[in-house]
Specification:
6-stranded parallel sheet, 14 helices
């Protein structure tokens, strides 16, 4: 189904969401149609944030907004859906468009399997009626579903379209780029070199894939790395939990700007506890690159300054390898919490693989490694 036709059926002029690879066609259509426009299209920090922004739009205009997201974000919407927009509270209608990762019977990555199994049930449990769109779904079927949804929306209830893999098409491309020069994989190679035998917690997406690939290429063990393949935005908190209980060991966190922004409150908590053995590296390319390259708001904020304000004793932002190496070595030598924000280009090699060990193996090996350090 052409995504332009789907948008016309939705008949909405305000969208807010968190990008998803399964919804790349929709995301690209919105970027080409609106760009980032506070009146029509906002890429938010997390899915709960989207619901609240959409609620504000409805309160101001009386018109129904659209929230788009991957099904992994359903967990982030449960609180505002059940305690804010539900018809028993404020009755604020929202149309959700949800990419279905981990659909039963469709091969996917481990972090999507359980969420995929419960996607439809979870929506039902939070009183959101849904309609599923697949490759063979006809436009008239979608129009009919929307007509049925209109009655629910008029009563203050929310609805959802669940989007199967490959359901949408869009002919136009979007060029996502920035003016930075360092590539993420090379940045991670520098981190690996300086960190030596120290444990590393890496964020979800391509960063963990690149870290795994770097270890493989050098013939090194993967046991010192915890690859946070799901739960976007939580790798820094995992690293903090490890650091506080392994105070004599340097713990590194390789984070991304989209992940750091998604649950930015973690930075405040980390700064308040200030584990002196933790080094938080945020690789900032200003993009949700793993799911397509759509922009984050990181280009408009100073993450190092945010960390400083939250209590990190040492913060720095670098944009070249010479300064990066100096910052990494200084952070390793210091016995204080550090953040290094690294300005990064958008891009990754086409042949980037995925981890070849299971999540359970990763957990077991990492815990065994921590016992020895």
């Amino acid at each position: 189904m052409r995504v332009e036709h789907f948008a016309k059926i939705l008949d909405a002029d305000f969208y807010t969401g968190v990008p998803d690879s399964q919804l790349k066609s929709l995301c690209n259509y919105l970027m080409n149609t609106y760009g980032i426009d506070s009146q029509h299209h906002i890429i938010a920090a997390n899915e709960g944030n989207c619901v609240a922004i959409a609620a504000g739009y409805y309160l101001a205009t009386g018109k129904v907004p659209v929230v788009y997201m991957q099904n992994s974000g359903e967990g982030n919407i449960i609180n505002p859906v059940t305690s804010l927009i539900n018809e028993k509270v404020y009755g604020i209608p929202i149309i959700f468009v949800i990419g279905w990762r981990g659909e039963p019977g469709v091969h996917d990555e481990p972090q999507h399997i359980f969420q995929g199994e419960i996607t439809q049930k979870l929506l039902k449990d939070i009183d959101i009626e849904s309609f599923t769109i697949g490759k063979d779904t006809k436009e008239e079927e979608v129009r009919e579903a929307k007509r049925g949804f209109n009655d629910l929306l008029s009563k203050g209830k929310s609805v959802a379209f669940i989007i199967r893999k490959g359901s949408f098409s869009y002919c136009e491309n979007v060029d996502y780029s920035n003016g930075n020069v360092m590539l993420r994989e090379a940045i991670i190679q520098h981190i690996v070199h300086v960190s030596g035998d120290d444990p590393i917690v890496s964020t979800t997406g391509k960063a963990s894939r690149e870290l795994f690939s770097i270890r493989t290429a050098s013939g090194k063990s993967h046991s010192q790395d915890f690859l946070t393949i799901g739960s976007m935005g939580h790798s820094s908190s995992i690293a903090m939990g490890v650091a506080l209980h392994k105070p004599d060991t340097k713990i590194w966190c390789i984070d991304g700007d989209g992940a750091a922004i998604m649950h930015m409150g973690a930075i405040a908590v980390i700064g308040a506890h200030a584990p002196a053995n933790m080094i938080h590296v945020v690789i900032n390319n200003g993009a949700h690159e793993t799911v397509g390259g759509q922009p984050t708001v990181a280009k408009t904020i100073d993450l190092a300054a945010v960390a400083k304000a939250c209590g990190y004793p040492n913060t720095i932002c670098v944009d070249n390898f010479e300064d990066l190496d100096k910052a990494l070595k200084m952070a390793k030598e210091k016995h204080q919490l550090s953040m290094i924000e690294v300005q990064c280009a958008i891009g990754a090699r086409d042949d980037l693989g995925r981890p070849t060990i299971s999540t359970m193996e990763n957990k077991k090996n990492f815990m065994e490694y921590l016992k020895g350090v």
